[in-house]
Write a structure and sequence with these properties.
With about 725 residues, this protein is mainly α. Among the domains are: about 90 residues, no CATH class; about 170 residues. The protein has 39 helices and no strands.
Length: about 725
């Protein structure tokens, strides 16, 4: 069977299962079974069929079952799992992806299963711990590194994880001689395999690891992986075991703040493209314009970018000149201080090393004992240790730094170490202050850096197209029933709402603010923010509701009324918009923009006489405004003052005319009875609008304005003759 046909079958069957047509799906699955299908899959399909029919029989007989919904969800999960397993078995023979290529290679080495490799890693780790003879040999760790890679690939591609596999993984994770970097790599293998094929055993294990592992870097990796998998398979019901594991994880005292951090960082990571473009198109080009004298002083360390950006010392104004470099430096530092991924574009060029040719290399926690790191350190381990302490970099970027040091001249190494020492002292001081202010900062930083590693894998790995990329699907966790439905920690929700709002993630901000309202009840400032977030998200009806709530709570502040009136006008609710702009005009009688918008809204509501009055007021407040003149001229025309409208249109055309001004001047001339002038103006409008077919352009415009011309007292019955005259005029 062709790979495309297998994919088509898998998707169509999954759709039937999700739509509730499980009997049809079972029939399809039976038809898909081949002589080579493993017997255990056949048994699972038979068991699903008989159990599902039994449930339907109980339903038909009217037997009450309070657990029917839960049991049905279990059937859905099992049917989808069988669909996955059957199609995976068919893919295995010919699918060229790395995942299936590894499966075929592993089949040739059946003794190297997960438990066997785990035991070999533990034995090798014990040997290394007692081997002091070759401590300075970078190659001493080569064997265990290959075993780690093999173990990662076995765990990643195993489906489903067997009980003996889970036992072996747990034994490896808890082995005293095994380093934390192996545990971190193992967690990544577990959740990456879960992203390939849904396996409740993996999800339960990840949630349990988050809850029980005392090592923050391990526990938080597990949480990130579980969250990504729940997002990936958000349409699948949760089994009882997964629900219980998730409920237990939610009892952790750090759950709310950790989940809020993961939610924020996943959205932030998806925004990395925008940050990268800003750096490449705005910040770096401005920095390239720095005066050569200043570049020299920056390179020598005499002054620092921080000093320039924060102090704005006049001493350097001459060298900065008009380049905008200080603003660019400040922008770069703000992005960096805020946790934005400012290193993606730089380090994307340093992912060509052999380490990153393997999936495991992208998820390996940085450690200075890695053989290629130790070999490339010209300072006997000092540089590798310092790179490990650079909290600004994620693990894969730290590896990139050390793997690239082989290209750095030896004489520059000491200068590099000195510069890093200075950077680390500042960093340690900043982190110490932050951690004192908030003990959650360290955990949030771990999440931030790990998600940066994950993002780099999905965006930079050479075979990335073979993987489901969660960052293309707007990975926002709050709408997920499994994670967000019962999320009721106000402090964590406030942190999310503030982050999303201040960073202009409007849909996410609206969700978080709305959830806060449900927890604490509405308040004026929050309702204003909610309305604004909805407005910027394009959800104007929801924005009206939120602004209306804010108006009720704050007594109708100017800000609230202004935004409410604007959204009402944009949604065509002119009667209400007129009312609110009227209130705004009373509060701000000297604001020309308010006067203009009020007049414009009155005109849109068909109240031309009142509109003309307020256009006069706007013209008094802002006599040079062409948009006010245009509004006033148009309402004068509609109110039967064609002569005054013509005078005003003549003024507008003399200053800065548009085709619409010429058309409207033609309408005014026609209303006055000056047909020759009107025909000339109409002809000019047609030529300017569509030189190839000016008459057709005029016909469309006159059809659009016909109702307004009637209001202005123009007899539109002679439109045909007017058009003929224009046609004759243009032809001459």
């Amino acid at each position: 069977m062709k790979l495309s046909d297998i994919n088509k079958f898998r998707n169509s069957t999954a759709r039937k299962i999700r739509d509730g047509h499980i009997l049809d799906a079972i029939a399809d699955l039976r038809g898909f079974v081949s002589p080579s299908t493993p017997w255990d899959l056949r048994e699972r399909l038979d068991s699903l069929d008989s159990s599902y029919r039994a449930m339907l029989d109980f339903l038909t007989r009217g037997i009450a079952d309070p657990d029917r919904k839960r049991v049905y969800d279990e059937f859905v999960v099992e049917a989808l799992a069988i669909n996955d397993a059957l199609t995976r078995a068919e893919f295995r023979a010919e699918n060229p992806s790395q995942y299936f290529s590894l499966l075929r290679m592993q089949a040739m080495s059946p003794t190297g299963d997960i438990p066997a490799i785990a035991e070999r890693i533990k034995a090798e780790a014990l040997r290394l711990n007692s081997d002091f003879e070759s401590i300075n040999d970078p190659d001493r760790t080569r064997n265990i590194e290959q075993l780690q890679r093999d173990f990662f690939e076995r765990v990643w591609t195993a489906y489903p994880l067997r009980p003996q596999d889970v036992q072996a993984i747990d034994g490896l994770m808890g082995a005293p001689a095994v380093g934390e970097h192996i545990a971190g790599l193992t967690v990544s293998a577990v959740w990456l395999g879960l992203m390939e094929y849904y396996d409740p055993t993996r999800l339960v294990w990840l949630l349990g690891t988050y809850l029980t592992d005392s090592r923050d870097r391990i526990a938080l990796r597990a949480l990130v992986g579980a969250a990504l998998a729940l997002f990936r398979f958000r349409s699948r019901p949760l089994t009882r075991k997964v629900s219980e594991a998730l409920a237990a994880a939610k009892e952790s005292p750090t759950w709310a703040s950790d989940l809020a951090a993961v939610t924020i960082e996943l959205v932030r990571a998806a925004d990395t493209v925008r940050i990268t473009e800003k750096l490449q198109n705005e910040v770096f080009p401005q920095l390239m314009k720095i005066d050569p004298e200043l570049q020299q002083k920056l390179a020598s360390g005499e002054i620092t970018p921080e000093y320039l950006a924060e102090e704005g010392n006049p001493e350097w104004e001459r060298m900065l000149g008009d380049s905008g470099a200080a603003d660019s430096l400040r922008s770069l530092m703000e992005l960096q201080a805020d946790g934005g991924d400012v290193f993606m574009s730089t380090f994307s060029q340093l992912k060509g090393f052999n380490l990153f040719n393997h999936v495991s290399g992208w998820f390996m926690p940085y450690h200075d004992t890695y053989s290629d790191v130790a070999r490339n350190d010209p300072a006997g381990g000092r540089l590798a240790d310092m790179v490990g302490q650079l909290g600004l970099l994620c693990d894969s970027d730290k590896f990139s730094v050390m793997l690239a040091t082989g290209m750095i001249p030896r004489e520059q190494v000491e200068a590099m170490i000195a510069a890093m020492n200075m950077q680390m002292e500042q960093q340690h001081q900043q982190l110490s202050e932050l951690e004192k202010a908030s003990p959650r900062t360290a955990r949030h930083t771990i999440i931030n850096k790990y998600i940066a590693d994950v993002y780099r894998f999905y965006k930079l790995y050479r075979r990335r197209n073979e993987f489901f990329d969660p960052f293309t699907k707007n990975p926002f966790l709050l709408p997920l029933a499994s994670l967000g439905a019962d999320f009721n920690d106000s402090d964590a929700m406030k942190a999310m709402a503030e982050f999303f709002f201040s960073h202009k993630f409007w849909p996410q901000a609206a969700t978080a603010l709305e959830r806060l309202d449900s927890l604490e009840g509405p308040e004026a400032s929050r309702s204003q923010k909610l309305g604004y977030a909805y407005e910027l998200s394009g959800e104007l009806s929801a924005a009206i509701d939120a602004y209306s709530t804010a108006e009720m709570l704050d007594g109708g502040s100017v800000w609230t009324i202004r935004h409410l009136a604007s959204v009402l006008r944009r949604t065509g609710r002119m009667k209400s918009a007129v009312s609110y702009y009227g209130r705004l005009a009373e509060v701000l009688p000297d604001d020309p923009q308010v006067a203009y918008t009020y007049a414009y809204t009155l005109a849109s509501a068909g109240k031309y006489k009142e509109a003309e009055q307020h256009f006069h007021k706007a013209a008094y407040l802002d006599p040079d405004s062409l948009k006010v003149m245009r509004g006033l001229a148009w309402t004068m025309l509609l109110n039967g003052k064609a002569d005054r409208a013509s005078e005003l249109y003549a003024t507008i055309i003399s200053r800065d005319s548009t085709p619409a001004d010429i058309l409207n001047a033609g309408h005014a001339a026609r209303a006055e009875g000056r047909l020759a002038d009107a025909i000339n103006l109409y002809a000019n409008y047609g030529r300017l609008t569509d030189p190839a077919d000016p008459v057709s352009a005029l016909i469309k415009a006159m059809e659009t304005d016909r109702s307004d011309l009637s209001t202005a007292g123009v007899d539109t019955g002679d439109d045909t003759l007017i058009l003929e005259a224009v046609k004759l005029k243009i032809s001459r």
